[in-house]
Specification:
Elements: E1 6-12, H1 16-27, E2 34-40, H2 47-51, E3 58-62, H3 68-78, E4 83-86, E5 92-93, H4 98-103, E6 113-121, E7 136-137, E8 156-159, H5 176-186, E9 191-202, H6 212-225, H7 231-250
Parallel strand pairs: 1-2, 1-4, 2-3, 6-9
Antiparallel strand pairs: 4-8, 5-9, 6-7, 6-8
Length: 252
């Protein structure tokens, strides 16, 4: 396959068991016009040996990197697809028809972004965030992105042309995808929000841990994307979110 429609990019590091489950969910897809690029950070848990057993359309690179966003940038550079999709090793496609359902929108004229939904696999107790009967996250692509990252990375398909002159910033270690989304939003791109579950994702992870470093990073990226004039507003907003998260963990 010379020109795949979709390039699926998977950053990986010492997470072999989950990586295998992730790749299995891709192999089950009924739509086959894709390539998979596993960008591994020189794992030591057997991942490299496993990756050597993969056949096309599964490809890999294993070498030291500067974190998840460096791995994603490497995947972008090596990708051949018209559309890009990023999947974490802890995540997997929602069902076998995800790519088939999304692919029906690829030929819409000038479309540059497609947003679906994710289903969270709850790990632990998160009061005020997830309820027992509501674990889905839908996308919104409007001014609310200045308040929170209102689209989920594992539910987004990006036209590759969006990355011709831009990549994920390595100065953000936790929220570079959020910074990218804000910058894409400012460009007033053509998009579509679809009622399709794309992935099942864990509710844990660095961005769910409530560390103050993440909220400092959020304040910084929003300020840089707008103006220093708004710094106090973003700082207060991030501080409120941080303390709310602490309360949630306190009653966990």
């Amino acid at each position: 396959m010379i020109n795949p429609q979709i390039s699926i990019i998977i950053p990986s590091f010492n997470n072999l068991k989950e990586l295998k489950e992730c790749l299995f969910s891709i192999k089950k897809q009924t739509y086959k016009n894709y390539e998979v690029l596993v960008i591994d950070g020189d794992s030591s848990d057997g991942t490299k040996e496993f990756l050597k057993t993969l056949d096309a359309p599964f490809f890999y690179l294993s070498e030291k990197d500067e974190g998840i966003y460096d791995a994603m940038n490497k995947g972008i550079s090596k990708s051949k697809g018209s559309w890009l999709y990023f999947l974490g090793t802890d995540d997997k496609f929602y069902d076998k028809d995800v790519l088939k359902n999304v692919a029906t929108f690829f030929e819409e004229k000038d479309l540059e972004l497609i947003f679906g939904k994710v289903d969270y696999k709850i790990k632990g107790f998160y009061p005020f965030i997830y309820s027992k009967n509501k674990t889905e996250k839908k996308a919104t692509w409007n001014w609310k992105i200045w308040i929170r990252n209102s689209v989920h990375h594992q539910a987004t398909f990006y036209k590759k042309s969006l990355f011709v002159n831009t990549k994920y910033s390595l100065k953000y270690k936790i929220l570079s995808d959020y910074a990218m989304n804000i910058n894409l939003y400012k460009r007033k791109l053509s998009y579509k929000i679809i009622e399709v579950f794309i992935a099942q994702c864990l509710s844990s992870g660095v961005s769910k841990m409530g560390k103050w470093n993440m909220y400092k990073e959020e304040t910084k990226l929003k300020t840089e994307a707008s103006s220093m004039f708004f710094y106090p507003v973003f700082y207060i907003l991030s501080s409120c979110k941080f303390f709310l998260k602490k309360i949630q963990y306190a009653v966990k």
